[in-house]
Amino acid sequence: MHINSPRFRPSRRGFLLGSGALAVGLSVSTRFARSEEEKKLNFYNWDTYIGETTLADFQKETGIEVKMDLFADNDELFAKLKEGNPGYDVIVPTNDNLERMILAGMIMPLDHSKIPNMSNIDEPFKDATFDPGRKHSVPYMWGTLGIGYRKSKIEGAVDSWKIVLDEPKYAGRISLLGDAANVIGAALKYLGYSFNSISPDELKKAEEILIANKKNIKVYADDNGQDLLVSGEVDLAQEWNGDILQVMGDDQDIGYAVPTEGSLLWQDTLAIPKGAPHPENAHAFINFILNGEVGAKIAETIQYATPNAAAKKLMSKEYLDNPAIFPPPEVIAKCEAGIYVGEEGTRLRDEAWTRITAA
Amino acid sequence: MESWRKNPAVFWILASPGTFWLIAFFLLPLALIWLMSFGEKTSITAYEVTGTLSNYLRSFSPVYLQILWKSIWISAVATVICLVIAYPIAFGIVFAPARWKPLLLLLVILPFWINLLIRTYALIAVFRTRGYLNFTLEWLWSGAKWLLTPIGLGGFFNERFVPYEMLYNNGAVIAGLVYVFVPFMVLPLYATIDRLDRSYLEASLDLGASQSTTFFRVTVPMTMPGIISGIILVFIPCLGSFLTPDLLGGTNATMIGNIIERQFKAANDWPFGAALSFLLMYATFGALALRALFAKRSRGVDI
Fold first, then answer.
1. Which pLDDT band, with edges at 50, 70 and 90, does A24 fall under?
2. Considering only CB atoms, which chain A residues are within 8 Å of B264?
3. β-pair type (A137-150, A254-257)
4. Structural domains of chain B, with CATH
5. Complex ipTM, two decimals?
6. How high is the mean pLDDT of chain A?
7. Interface mutation target, options A96, A233, A346, chain B, most CBs of B under 10 Å
8. CB-based contacts of A15: which residues, under 8 Å, 6+ apart?
9. Does the pLDDT of residue A10 top 50, yes or no?
10. Distance between terminal CA atoms of chain A?
11. What is the pTM of this model?
12. ∠B116-B114-B235 over CA atoms, to 5°?
């Protein structure tokens, strides 16, 4: 190309020829996609949720180029794929959303023979209630829902949901999450019920306690409780462990605890949505992620708990001993995985949440 | 210009892209949502149009009406504040020297160059307990304390400055809405005031009316179409907003827009969300009909 010539510019005809070639190229690539997949993969992931070089390393090893799009929450992921897969090969749904997507027939079964690294998965994660036999998904990262707090402003231990749900002492300095399932779930757990309960009686009691103590809550924060903690807007925030961990590094005064009544144990999974244009590459990618070294590099970057035994072996003691990443086993034992509660259950929860926010 | 009737082919050629756009990307999706509002969910991802009215009946239950009512008054307060702020601004721009006008209008629309989400987060940084506004107030407060204590007025001051809690309440939501929507009020007002025949104002003043009488009995009635347009342009999007109450509002800041958003996302109940959306649409149509009625009656400046 005559880069140095200041007079160079593409002629209109040249442009038309170029776009014609592009169109031909597209149709050719779709025609041959069936027999041999093009070296491409569309990955739909959460923001800041992959290792720094993972995608580049994958391309180096397999020649497959990964294009990553980001979603902000499970609802966005679900809404995007609800009316048909727009072209994603690998997605990262959380367990209850995955369960809903499997039930809706949106997820392709995995071919385990193409994912030999599944043997690296830690024993407790080899099977899952929301995906029996791991037919549709592999675990990616896991964590807990708990309470982030400013150590210098809180007296005593943060060990119960009571401190944020039923305690006027810290009135006006508390934030809860901004969605029905997690706020109501925490109240249910505090009352000794299941996090996933949709019994109208139990929901009613949870609703009552949330409404009665609403005056203590400053804000229902949509997943920015960690920012509120850092800026001093609140001293107690119901949040995901990973979000609090991100700010604990910069602010030594912030702590994280999972209440002893138990909480939600979440698991993000890798799955292939139906209609994925490159299923072969998707299997190769999932297998790559489950490699011990790759998994360790990801965990090092994003600081979530890895369900990969091979990766865990390579991790530092500091990471493995961090109670905000791996809570004590007796607390974990009280935690529950979120389940898909059905459309009627979702509606009951949503209506309770509407009444709580309108009260 | 010759009438389009004489040359219908040219008319249709010119009109077809716009018509196509309107039908394919506005009327058709809207019709689908309208049909959906008479539907029922049949599975996680599917729904069926059964002609049921249950979604509308459900949206008339007290809790939703309460939220709708709250959305209406919050939007109304925000609209009135917008009007009070925007009228002098529009007036100022009209009567500013001609060479300043483009710059002033540019300043009015400048915020649109920044994404709404970022502007709202910026508001949080301004209003929060340890935000810029409280920093400024604290600075003024300590200045005043330093000045007044020597003359014996130090007793009015606490030991330490207590920051104001300005975020996470209805006031913050209204402030956020006003901040976002003021330009929508300024522009139609500017358009009408600019075309106002100033000889009427002179006549009124010459005939002995005071400035305020002239303003309320001549200027305001003659700019009424602009005021109504501005009110509609601000009130309707306020009514449907969900981002501002979400980020700035407190624990009871839910507006009808939030409920609708949730039906299309977390609650996964599109038919109900569609019915709620159309309730808002009907309210909008009502407002537009009202505007048409006013426009017919008013003898003000047309825009």
1. very low
2. 79
3. antiparallel
4. 61-128+166-297 (1.10.3720.10)
5. 0.86
6. 88
7. A233
8. none
9. no
10. 68
11. 0.85
12. 40
